[in-house]
Amino acid sequence: MNQIVLLSLLDGVAMSSVLFLLAVGLSLIFGVMRILNIAHGGFYAIGAYGASLLGQYLIGASGSWLNFIVLLLVAVVAGIVLGFAVEKLVLAKMYDKEHVLQILSTFAVFMILEDGQKLLFGVRPYFYDAPLVLLGTIDVAGIFYTRYQLVFLPIVALLVLASLMIFFRRTQTGKIIEAVIEDTEISSTLGINTKKIYTYTFILGTFLACLAGALASPSTSIVPGIGAEVIVLSFAIVATAGLGNFFGTALTSLIIGLAYSISVYTYSEFTNVIPYLVMALILIVKPYGLFGKKELARL
Amino acid sequence: MKLNSETFVLLLVIAVLALVPLADISLRAILLLAISLAFPALGLGLLLRSGQVSFGHALYYAVGAYTVAVAQKLHVTDVFLTLALALAASMVLGLILGAILSRYRGIFYGMLNLAFSMVGFTLLLKLYDITGGSDGMGILRPTFLGHKFSNPQTAWAIYYLAVAVLVAGILFLEQYMRSAPGSALGAIRTNETRLEYLGRSARQVFLAGHVISAGFAGVGGMIIAYSTSHVTPELAYWTLSAEFLIVAIFGGAGSFTAITIGALAFVLLRNLISSYVVDAWQLILGIILLGIIMYMPDGLWTLFRKKPDAKAP
Amino acid sequence: MTHFALKAAVAALALPLTLGLGSAQANEPLRVGVTTFLSGPGAVFGVPAKDAADLLVAEINAKGGIKGAPVELIYLDEAKGIDDVVAQYKQLATAGKVDLMIAGLSSSTCLALAPVIEDFEMPAILWDCGTHRIFEENDFDYIYRTGDLTPPNNVSIALYTLKHNPEIKTIAGINPDYAFGRDNWESFRTAMQALDPDIKVVAELFPKLGASDYSSEISRLSALRPDVVFTTLWGGDMNTFIKQASSRSLFNNSTLVSSNGESALQELGDAFPEGAIIGARGDSWFLGPRTAHNPEHTKFVEDFKAKTGHYPIFPAYHMAQSVTALQQALEKGWDGTPENLTKGFLAGMDGLALDNFTGQLTIRPDHQAIEDQIIGVTVKSPDYSFPILKQMTYIPAELITPPVGTTTAEWAKTLSPKLLDQVTIAQ
User: Fold this and answer.
1) What's the pTM?
2) The domain containing residue A89 runs over which residues?
3) Structural domains in chain C?
4) E strands of chain A, at which residues?
C-alpha cells in the first residue's frame, strides 16, 4: 500500500509540473488582458514541433547539453515572433470589442495555427527523446523513473513559478503591470503605455506556452491535435484556480495531477474524467475558482 | 405575423432549403448538416440576447444524438418519438445543470458549461458498455408512424422533416422573444437589477432561456444522428461548441433568420474550401472568420454595446 | 420559381439514372471506395496500405483492368472521425459515385460503416479491422472480410507465449480504449487463463486512443512487474508507449507480447526491445518462410520498397489480400456488365480460396476468411536497421478460430491446456 502512495505522489508531481507549465501562460494572459486565449494550444504545439525538429536536425539522436539550449531557444524565438505577430495583427484591434468576439478571434488564430502545423510539419508523428534519455533514469523503490520527468521538469516548474511571483511582486515592470490590471484608465493617465504592456504580456504568455510544448516534447509523440487537447485541459486548470492567479494555478495543477495518478493506481477506468470532474466540483462550490475574485466576472 | 423584409428573407431561405436538393441531390447531405448546426446556433442566439455565451452546448447536442441511438437499442424507431425524446432529454439535462448554471454570468457561466460538457464527453467515452465508447453507436433507418420506407425515401423524409422542424423552431423563437420571459432576457444583459425591481426573477428568466437553448441543441443532435447514421463522443467535444458559436456569429446573432443563413453559409463555405484545399481549409476558414470578426459589423451589431440600435430586442 | 420547377422536373427524370448502383460498365471504370488512415497517428499504419493498393491497382490496370474495366480508387480518410467517414460514404453512395467498397482499417469504422453499406446493398470487403463482433452480431449479405480476426490473433500468440515461456505466472494488459483494444485483451486474457488456469491478471489498463503520455501507466506496470505485458496499441500510440517504456527499462523484467506488433518494427527500429513475442495478424510477413521463395512475393517486396522506402508491413499485406481477392472473385464470377456487378461479386467471393504472394486464406460460409498465424520472437539483425523475427512458427487456423455458427464467447469455453500439446514452436 505504501508503495502505491509513494508512486502516486511521484507520478502526481511529475504530471503536475507539466500541467502547471501548460496552464501558467494562459493564466497570465487572462489575468492581465482578460482574454481567454484559445490560440494557447496552437503555441504549445508549435513549441513542441519546433523543439523536436530542431533537436533532430541540429543535434541528432545522441543528444547533448545543447539540447536544453535548443529547447529554450525555440521557446524564446517562437514566443517572441508568434506572440508579437498575433498581438499586433489580431488582438490589438479587438480590445474595444466584446469578450465573446475576442475569444472567437483567438479561436480563429488557433484554427490557422492547426493547419499551419500540418503544412509545416506534416501529419506523421514526431518523436525525439534525446534530452530525456540524456538525463538517464533514477531508481526509486525498484521503479525506474526518468530524471527528466521526475527531477528536471518539477525544478523548471518551480523556477517559473518563483520567477513570475518575484517579477510581479518585486520588480518595477511587474508592479506597473499589476497597476494596469487594477485599473487601465487610471494607469494610462499616469503615463503608463498600456498598449506596450499588453504586447509584452502577450509575448510572455506565448513564450510560456511554447516553452511548455518544447519541454513536453521529449516525452511524448507529437501529432496534429495535441493543441486542442492541451487547451481544454489548461482552461480547466486556470478556471479552477481562479483566473490570473499563479499560485492558484500551481495548487490546482498539483490537485489534478495527484488525483489523476491516484486514479491510475486505483480506479483506472475514470482517469480521463478526473481533470473535468475536479473542475466541475470546485466551480460548483467556488464558482470563481479557488482564488478567484468576483470582479473578474465583468463582461 | 408582420410582412416585412425579414419575413421575405426567411421565406427565401425556406425555398432554398426545400428546392435545391431536388435539383442536385448531392447537396442534400450538406444542407441537412447545415440545418443540424443551425439548431444549436439558434439556441446560442437566444442566450446571446441575454449577453451570455456558453462554451458547452455540444453536450446537449450529443445528448440529443445519443438519445436516438439509445432509443433504437430499446426498439423505439419512430422518428417523431425520437424527436420528442431528444428534445425532452436535452431539456431535462438543461434544467438540472441550469439550476446551478443560471446563478452565474459572463465567463463563469461560459466555463462551467465547458466543464460539464467535458465531463459529459469523457463519460460518453468511458461508459463503454452503454455508449460503445469511442466507437460510438450506429443509427438505422427510422420508421414514420409505423411505416418503414426504402433507403432513398427515408432520406428524403428525414430531410423535409428537418426543414419543417427548423421553420417551426425559428417561428417559436421569434414568438418567444415577444413574450414576457423572452423580452426579459434582454434585460439580463443591460440591467438585471431592474428586472428584479419589476418583480421578475432574473434567475428564472435565464434558466428558461438556458433550457430552451439546450432543447434546440438537442434537436440539432437528433438530426445529425439520422444524417450521419452514427454517433460518437466527439459530438460533445469543446471544438464543436466553439463551432456553434462561430455559426451563431457568422450570419448575425441579431436575428434568427440571420443565424440560419449563417449556418448555411458556414457549411457551404467550409465544403467549398475543403474540396479545393484539402489540407488547409481550417486555415482559410480561420482567416475568413477573423475578417468577419474584425471588419464586418453587419450582423454582429447585437454584440456592440456601444451602438444602440433601433432593432435591439 | 418556374425555373426551379423546370429544374426539378428534369432532375426528377434524371434521378433514377444517377442513383443507379453498380453503374460501372465494361471500359467504364470500376470505382472502388477505400477507407484507411491517411493522417494523424494512424497514418504510419494506413498509408502503407494505400501504397500497396496503388501499386497493385496500377499493375491490374496496366494489364487491362478487371474484365476490361479499369479500377479507380477513391480514398476516404478514417482519421477524420467515424461520423465523418460514414457521412462521406453516404454522400458518395447516394450520388452513385462508388460501386464497391474496401473498408475498415479500424474496427470502429467497420462496426459503424458495414450496416450502412449493407443498407445500400453495395458489395464490400472489410480489409483490416479485426473485431469478431462484425459477423457475430450481424448477418450481412453483401459484406465479406478477407482480413483475419481477433480470436485467432490472440489465441495463437497465447499458445506461442506459453510454449516459449512456460513458467509465466502473471500478465498485464495495456490496450487502447475502444472495441479493438478491449476485444483483443479479452481474447488474450481468456486464452491465457484457459490454457493455464494458474495465471493471474495483475493490471488491465485502457488509455484513451491517441494518448500522448503513458508515464503513470508505465510506473504502475513497473511496480507490478508482470511476466508479460500485452499490448495492442498501434501506430503512433505504440511508438510512444514502447519508447517511453524502454527508456524506463520496463521490458527488463517483463516480456512484451503484441499480436499486432509487427507493424511497429520498422518504425521503432532498434528502440524495439529484443525478446518480444510478436504477431503479424495473419500469415504474411516480408521475411516469412512460406513466401520466401515465391517470385511474385519477391517482386512485391522490391516494388513496395522502391515506391515507399520501407518493407511492407501487415496492413499492406491485408490490403493486398483484399485487392487480389476482389480481382480473383470478379474475374471468376462477373460478366463485365454493370447490372451484374453485385451478383458477380457475390458469386465470386463465395468460397473463395486465395493462395498467392500474400499467403493463403479461405472464405467461409459466414463470409469470414481464415488463415494461419505467424508468430516470432524479436532479435536484432546486422542486415536490417530494425529487429526481425526468429523462431517463426505458423499456428494452424483450425486450432485457433471459432467455427462457423459458434460465438467467440462459447468457443472460448472449450479451450483447455490440452491445446498446448497440439502446437510445436520453432526452436
Assistant:
1) 0.85
2) 2-297
3) 20-148+293-363 (3.40.50.2300), 151-280+372-422 (3.40.50.2300)
4) 137-140, 143-146
